[in-house]
Amino acid sequence: MNERMNEEMNERILTLVEEKKFGVLKEELIEIMAVDIAEIFDDLDKKQSVIVFRLLTKDQAADVFSYLSSEQRRAIVEAIHETQLNEILEELFFDDKIDFLEEMPANVVKRILKSSTEEERKLINQFLKYPEDSAGSLMTIEYIDLRKEMSVKEALAYIKANGVDKETIYICYVLDEKRKLEGLVSLRKLVLLDEKLLISDIMTEEFIATHTLDDQEEIAALFKKYDLLTLPVVDREERLVGIITIDDIMDVVDRENTEDFQKMAAMEPSEEEYLESNAFALARRRIPWLMLLMVSATFTEGIIGRFENVLQAVAILAASIPMLMDTAGNAGSQSSTLIIRGMALGEIELKDYIKVFWSEFKVSIIVGVALGFINFIRMMIFVRAGLGFAITVSVTLVVTIMMAKMVGGTLPILAKKLKLDPAIMAGPMITTIVDALALIVYFNIASTLLGL
Amino acid sequence: MNERMNEEMNERILTLVEEKKFGVLKEELIEIMAVDIAEIFDDLDKKQSVIVFRLLTKDQAADVFSYLSSEQRRAIVEAIHETQLNEILEELFFDDKIDFLEEMPANVVKRILKSSTEEERKLINQFLKYPEDSAGSLMTIEYIDLRKEMSVKEALAYIKANGVDKETIYICYVLDEKRKLEGLVSLRKLVLLDEKLLISDIMTEEFIATHTLDDQEEIAALFKKYDLLTLPVVDREERLVGIITIDDIMDVVDRENTEDFQKMAAMEPSEEEYLESNAFALARRRIPWLMLLMVSATFTEGIIGRFENVLQAVAILAASIPMLMDTAGNAGSQSSTLIIRGMALGEIELKDYIKVFWSEFKVSIIVGVALGFINFIRMMIFVRAGLGFAITVSVTLVVTIMMAKMVGGTLPILAKKLKLDPAIMAGPMITTIVDALALIVYFNIASTLLGL
Known about the structure:
The structure is a homodimer.
Chain A: H1 3-18, H2 22-30, H3 34-41, H4 46-55, H5 58-67, H6 70-79, H7 82-91, H8 94-103, H9 106-114, H10 118-128, H11 135-138, E1 145-146, H12 152-162, E2 171-175, E3 181-186, H13 187-192, H14 199-202, E4 210-211, H15 216-226, E5 230-234, E6 240-245, H16 246-264, H17 279-296, H18 298-306, H19 308-313, H20 321-344, H21 353-383, H22 387-417, H23 427-449
Parallel strand pairs in A: 1-2, 4-5
Antiparallel strand pairs in A: 2-3, 5-6
Helix pairs in contact in A: 1-3, 3-5, 4-6, 5-7, 15-16, 18-23, 20-22, 20-23, 21-22, 22-23
Keywords (chains A, B): CBS domain, Cell membrane, Magnesium, Membrane, Metal-binding, Transmembrane, Transmembrane helix, Transport
InterPro entries (chains A, B): CBS_dom, CBS_dom_sf, Mg_transptr_MgtE_intracell_dom, MgtE_N_sf, MgtE_transporter, SLC41_membr_dom, SLC41_membr_dom_sf
Membrane topology (chains A, B): Multi-pass membrane protein
């Protein structure tokens, strides 16, 4: 199965929907994986979605449902009977159920809570309260719990009896009578080792755990560092309250990276998909930073204003301002991007401040001199500029590239030191700061060299 | 175990190394996870690394070795005996072994190949030939292969006998006598279902597979979409040649994102860690794009040169050039970043071109008008500019923001259409293009409105 085959299948299904051949369609859908069916829904309108959804088998319906977008789910919830909705919800893993409830309107949530048992209602309410980016909001409660007195054989029998509706059985959790987490046992060990051994003999007591309120970015880092498939979540008394599985962490990694990309491009981050956002929502996330950066640019106006007499004397000086500013901005962005990314991956830490500064200093000399030299040649040959003008611009270029790289390399670290997100010290912010510096250097060098 | 505890442990170990208390150190190391020991090596010098490495147990040594950086591995390979090296290599999974061989100098590789069996030597040579970003370079060969005639009970017995040195046993592969992949069986099913069932009854025949030369980015997308733990790799005859496990995919996701961040900041991407790169290597990756963008800026010089008379008449016009250019550049980067990211995650496709264009058009009107209005107020009140000048700048702002967003939103899609990486159409490139447009608009509006 590859992308092309997927597209062909999509088209075949769409044709069947349009030709209303629902009998054939039902047969075909049985052969298709849930996530691929969910993808077909992207090309269906609301009415068609409901029709196709009704053609799914019970098991498929819940699976497909868990892959649909929030908008699509709403359309389906509105159209299906309460009994069918309850059947679907029963099939969902607890973390998917909570995600679903979080995005539904209050009346739907109420209806669902009403038809839940007292115990489940309490649990749902507790889970709905975990902050959005916390371990609590990622975890699920379908795990295998073992006792350390069990033998491997007993444990396997217990798993066989209780494993069907667990999200994973590959890592099992050994709890004491107060549900305190004592150790982990992998199914790998249970299957490979002698069945007469006791769980207490084979369980790992040195394990990684996280707390309900820990941040998802830190949790993703743990998964990467320790090559985890699941991570137990414990409360303050070290009692197991849930587990996080790697499939959810893959999504976290994507979301965290998207957030960084957006912040680094001077936007308020959002988890909504681009094509699903309306124009006002998109604009609202872009205006604040643009505004702030625009107002900051008032400084550059002031600087040019102060050197108006220089410009009046040699108006052509203005011609190189865009090139100088762009190059300085780009040079600074390169440095800040590398440092921000290095910090996000844990490769660069606060204590590396001096190392980064020194490294950027060396790099900036090499880059600055190389570009200054090329620019001098360029201006003499292609622009046919005067020698004084060419030297002014080239020297400014060397100095501003050096400044830009020092600023770009160190501001993200400073931001982190001040407990700000380093990602805000990316291209746009660095460019605004570096532009002002570049102009000051430019006019000062021009005044001196050209004797203005 | 959290980060703070890790740091405390690191310090304790470092103290033991410095005080040369090797007996105690050896005891302490037994309790520490391999990846955490590897982290301690970052703070050790070459000589200390070798000492600590010699204190590890046989099993630990191989594990720790697989987590070390390429530089650290070399130091250790130079210092340890051939027999110990061979022991370590035997313990490594095949994919880690290949990674290791790839980074070692030719004489070390030769030595290792010499002491391998004929069969293994052939296999190693074959694996070393797979391109860097391909499925072949990610896969390992330690998997469980089953026959469809086996019963569940026989399969479990087979796994018990052969599973110890497999990278994973959670997904098993059903092969025919020609090693053609016929289906998958999860250990979950084997443990949960009746042991009298046959593998052919329970195996999944609808599975996702990849080919040895497929690109790692596409493979990562498959893991995300289908929530996979492992992915089989087959050759052209559909024979199983290896498997890819999710821990390696987590690294791929990080690497691919880093590559995008670097490209979007106008750098040649590199996998080397910042702090491990020397200044020349860092500079070499930054100069080409800076140079290209600098030379492109020659256009802006030409534009300003053409309007020299306008500038001569009203030199203060130059004062707003930086603000206009920065705002246009930022507005364009916002759009291009969203689109590039959306395409990287598969949320936006080529066929969405019109949708994106229309969406950016609407957003750009909202953002443009909002910023133009604020700028007008700002210039009238704080800059005390003349009405004509304030109107000129504000109108230019609206027009350039609109252009910037259309350009930023559509060029990444166009790049993809032309089979280029959309990531090159990010901030720096968009800024350079949009700057030229902004200047043309500015001077034309100024000439008209101010009657120059």
